[in-house]
Amino acid sequence: MVMGLHPQYLSSFWKTQRLLLHMDGPLPYHKRHYIAIMALLKPGEDSWSLAELVQALVLLTHYHSLASFVFGCGIHPEGEQDGVQGCRPASPHSDGSPATDDSLGGSGVRGQGGLAVDAMQEVEVLMERMKLLQDSQLEEEGITQEELETRFELEKTESLLVAPSGEGRREESRRSSVLCFVEDPEFGYKDFNRRGQQAPPTFRAQDYTWEDHGYSLINRLYPEVGQLLDEKFQVVYNLTYNTMAMHRGVDTSVLRRAIWNYVHCVFGIRYDDYDYGEVNQLLERSLKVYIKTVACYPEKTTRRTYTQFWRHFKHSEKVHVNLLLLEARMQAALLYALRAVTHYMT
I need a surface site. Which of 10, 39, 71, 94 has the fewest CB within 10 A? Predict the structure, then answer.
């Protein structure tokens, strides 16, 4: 229902999930579902073929990233709905336009006097910054590669200081119902560097790209899913309704790119041709906290985390952010995993 706010993407996502779990493939169905539940992989007595390994990796990254979307949108099992944070699915408009119920994104703010004005000002400031960035890109300002690298390193280091929101109480209560399936309860995301240590490693996207390397490897070993994954990445990266809160006819490309590249930055991936100064101009801190929490610690996402960013935006627009998060996280994980497979093969 929540993904249905963006039907073009939902169609692409559903085709991919159907192929992964229900269509012909190297792994039998029961093993695919077990991997989907397990989402961590340890070597067994029998080794897998590369085709089986790649399918397993796609399943793992698919469900890891799907967890970010599910928790980020507040979708919980029925038994856990009482007393936990959640997002109410929006109702579609009668004119056929995307659903825009902003019960979490705006109405809660409107009733608080000055906060509504502040939220509207945030929209206008963001609009102005986007316009300035688009204008400066047209002027083709010269920035050296050294400066671009420095801006990325600053953003990467700053992302380590962005702590996840949420309380451990909610995480512990959730764990109690699934502990029988878990071997290592402490397993989860850890920052790829600790403060005060040597600079974190950087994955240069140009050295192993999805378009030139990851896609071709999957296409060779698991061809059907390679095409669908590429389609899914393209659909969500280019998805736009040219709207922003109360504005229409808006070019949101710089904002979508900033969100996508920030997710990859959190995982240490750098694009040589991107100015990471744009991330700091377009993504205010509450949005960065939300992205870091949902991408890395989805189970710690709370209603407050959700409501604190983009307070005057529509619910469907926040869901759109979660779709970008889902696919950017999945592509980042696949880049690391497929690069390792490539190194093994060579």
Answer: 94
Task: Report the Cα 77 to chain-centroid distance in Å.
Answer: 21
Q: Name the DSSP class of 205.
A: G
For 73-116, write each residue's pLDDT tens digit: 888 655 444 444 445 443 333 333 443 333 333 333 334 444 55
Which position has the token pair 């979708």? Answer: 75
Q: Which of 54-58, 144-148, 166-170, 326-330 is predicted with the least confidence, judged by mean pLDDT?
A: 166-170
**Token couple for 17:** 């999930």
pTM of the model: 0.74
- 179, 245 Cβ separation under 8 angstroms: no
Residue pLDDT, tens place only, 181-234: 777 777 777 665 555 555 567 899 889 999 999 999 999 998 889 999 999 999
DSSP string, 62-122: HHHHHHHHHHHTT---GGG-TTS---PPPPPPTTSPPP---IIIIIHHHTTTHHHHHHHHH
Helix (H) / strand (E) element for 6: namely none
So what's the pLDDT on residue 101? 38
Q: How many domains does the chain have?
A: 1
Looking at residue 96, what is its pLDDT?
Answer: 35
- Which residue in 242, 238, 239 sits closest to 250, CA to CA? 242
Residue 204 phi, psi (nearest 5): -80, 115
Q: Report the candidate in 267, 263, 269, 297 with the shortest Cα–Cα distance to residue 168.
A: 297
Q: For residue 106, what are the contacts with CB-CB under 8 A and spacing of at least 6?
A: 119, 245, 311, 312, 313, 314
Residue appearing with tokens 């599910």: 70
Local structure of 21: helix, strand or coil: helix
pLDDT score for 168: 45
Please give the pLDDT value at position 82.
43
DSSP 288-322: HHHHHHHHH-GGG--HHHHHHSSTTS-HHHHHHHH
| Residue numbers of the domain that contains 184 | 3-345
How many residues does this entry show for the chain? 346
d(Cα 288, Cα 294) in Å, to the nearest integer?
10
Q: Which helix (H) or strand (E) holds 269?
A: strand 269-270
